[in-house]
Amino acid sequence: VTSSAFAAARALAAEGEQHLVSARSADENDESSAARDFRKQAHAAYNQAFEDTALWEMEIVDKYSDRDRQVEKIKKERSRWMQKIIALHKTTGR
């Protein structure tokens, strides 16, 4: 199960993770405004990755079933993205 959209979404999620690293660094340097901006950027990246793959996930579940090992891995990865989105929503006030 592969998709160029999923590969692009993974790249977005990786960008989101880098923004979180930058936010933590800004926090350590008492740069709260910068940290908040980085968290907003992370939120946007994870959200876009999640949205861009929603329809595709439904299609592969229909095609392969949700018990397929690769489909399970994809669903878990997208679930981690959603957990980040939820956590970031709480910290960015969006």
What structural keywords apply?
single chain, 94 residues, mainly alpha, elongated
Description of the structure:
With 94 residues, the protein is mostly helical. It has helices at 4-28, 32-64, 69-92. Helix 1 (4-28) runs antiparallel to helix 2 (32-64). The longest helix has 33 residues, at 32-64. The radius of gyration is 15 Å and the shape is elongated.
What is the strand and helix layout of this fold?
Layout: H1 4-28, H2 32-64, H3 69-92
Shape: elongated
Tally the helices: 3
Query: How much helix, percentage-wise, in residues?
Result: over 70%
Low-pLDDT stretches: none
What series of H and E elements makes up the topology?
A: HHH
Taking the sheet with the most strands, its summary is: none
Structural class of the helices, strands and pairings?
A: mainly alpha
Q: What is the strand tally?
A: 0
Q: Whole-number average pLDDT?
A: 94
**Gap between N and C termini, in Å?**
34 Å
Radius of gyration: 15 Å
Q: Per DSSP, what share of the residues sits in E-state strands of 2 or more residues?
A: under 5%
